[in-house]
């Protein structure tokens, strides 16, 4: 049973994490808004460089929305949007902590299998499949990271 | 911190930097290279220094930060070195696309002109000298920030995985 005090602290941590992930996602989704505000195009060279550190940004592997390519590939889009949606749901829903590592390993196996099979040419790269594996991995990873952060920050706060 | 304690972070940071520089590997590893590096540094620390589980939160963060810093340092170094030798890089390749995108929105004004002139001056310096101080500063700062964040995430995931694995 979670006490109301601990629930509030957990909710604050989750809201902060949601805001941070939202900012990150807004960055790679920024090309969508170029047509709404033309001056945001000036940020393109810098945001492209920032996201190039974490993604190969191959055009044919990225989604096009509103006529512009997103700044990360379909798989990375899935990972970050998975983490964003999991962080949003976590603000309202407090499930029990995941005890084992099986779920994390399964999500990792899905993503690795898709990467290996498309690289080996067993089947053609699909943006939607890549995004689906990314969504699963991103949401599961967020839950594991959230458990670690909450357990440690709340233990510190409670002085245990 | 003793040398033996930072060795896993140096090795994994170096490895992550090499993998992010090799074109084919980056296509496969994507955003997972630095987090996996941080994860591996915790794993190696357990093996080399015979650290007893469970892994402390502070230690996971510290290993994530160190791996991120070393990865950023080495990847900047490799990027600068390769650019110096070849007088070109992905920034030069992407500049025409960047300019055409910016021109397609028909932007005018001092801010736009300054941005374009700064981008062109960096490109010219790279093509002529193989080195641009502004470009180097820009990639170093972005590498540090991004690799630090992803290193910490990898450290936390590694802590979660290794602690859960070692649970009775």
Main sheet specs of chain A: 2 strands, antiparallel
The shape of chain B, in one word, is elongated
Distance between the termini of chain A: 18 Å
Structural class of chain A: mainly alpha
What is the strand content of chain B? under 5%
Q: Which two chains touch over the largest interface? A: A-B, 36 and 39 residues
Distance between the termini of chain B: 31 Å
* Strand-pairing-aware structural class of chain B: mainly alpha
What letter string, H or E per element, gives the SSE order of chain B? Answer: HHHHHHH
Compute the CA-based radius of gyration of chain A.
Answer: 18 Å
Low-confidence stretches of chain A: none
The run of helices and strands of chain A is HHEEHHH
Give the DSSP E fraction of chain A (strand runs of 2 or more residues): under 5%
Q: Give the proportion of residues in helices of chain B.
A: over 70%
The residue-averaged pLDDT of chain B reads: 87
> With helices defined by DSSP (H or I, 4 residues minimum), what is the helix count of chain B?
7
Radius of gyration of chain B: 19 Å
What is the quaternary state of this protein?
heterodimer
Question: Can you offer a commentary on this structure?
Answer:
The complex is a heterodimer of chains A (160) and B (168). With 160 residues, chain A is an all-alpha fold. Chain A contains five helices and two strands. Chain A has a two-stranded antiparallel ribbon with strand order 1-2. In chain A, a hairpin with a 2-residue loop joins β1 (64-65) and β2 (68-69). The two termini of chain A are 18 Å apart. With 168 residues, chain B is mainly α. Chain B is 83% helix and 0% strand. Chain B is built from seven helices and no strands. Chain B starts with a helix and ends with a helix. The chains are: A mainly alpha (160), B mainly alpha (168). Chain A binds chain B through residues 34, 38-39, 41-42, 44-46, 48-50, 52-56, 58, 68, 72-73, 75-76, 79, 99-101, 104, 115, 119, 141, 144-145, 147-149, 152, and chain B through 20, 26-28, 30-31, 34, 57, 60, 75, 90-91, 94, 98, 101-102, 105-107, 111-112, 115, 119, 138-139, 142-143, 146-147, 150, 153, 156-157, 159-161, 164-165, 167.
